[in-house]
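Forgive a beginner's question, but would it be possible to get any protein sequence you like and the tokens describing how it folds?
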Amino acid sequence: MNDLSNYRKSYEKSELLETNIPEDPINLFNRWFHEVEDFGGNGEVNAMTVSTIGLDGFPKSRVVLLKKFSEEGFIFYTNYNSEKGKAIAANPHVCLSFFWQEMERQVIIKGIAQRTSENISDGYFDSRPDGSKLGAIVSNQSEVIPSRTFLEENLKKLEAAFEGKSIPRPENWGGFLVTPLEVEFWQGRPNRLHDRIRYQSQSDYSWKIERLSS
């Protein structure tokens, strides 16, 4: 057995206090996102973990890229016929999480996912490089395939078929908008007394703000 009990780190880079937070979690998320971006970490600041409840009843998490966020929620794109696409169709309750190691921060978002409009999906698909567009078409995401060569050969066929032509968005590919119901901000602090602030959506569209014990 690999014993990791001596893996320890003291978190001392920042603090999260009620006297310095907005009433809306999206504003705080925006502040944190750009602070991490300005800090210059090595990773992709928009990388997030999406957790769903699969058709087999088990939770499953995977890393995807956040492509837009606003007061309405958080948008990412995927193949609707993929494992996560089918899971969301059956149970739209999802969890998003961000871990920004460089600034010792974590954000956990519980929300409801729904498909974005076709206009939004079309607009983002059109902005992608042709290689990414063809990749979305050629890959039946989550399906079993015989080999890597199978994918690469099908991609070559598509490249020839669409040479000099516009590439339309597949109907089974598009965005999900996650409307947040609860957003928790975690800031690492010394002696494991971390700061945890939770925002919960209320029926009057306000947010209930509470501090949680570390």
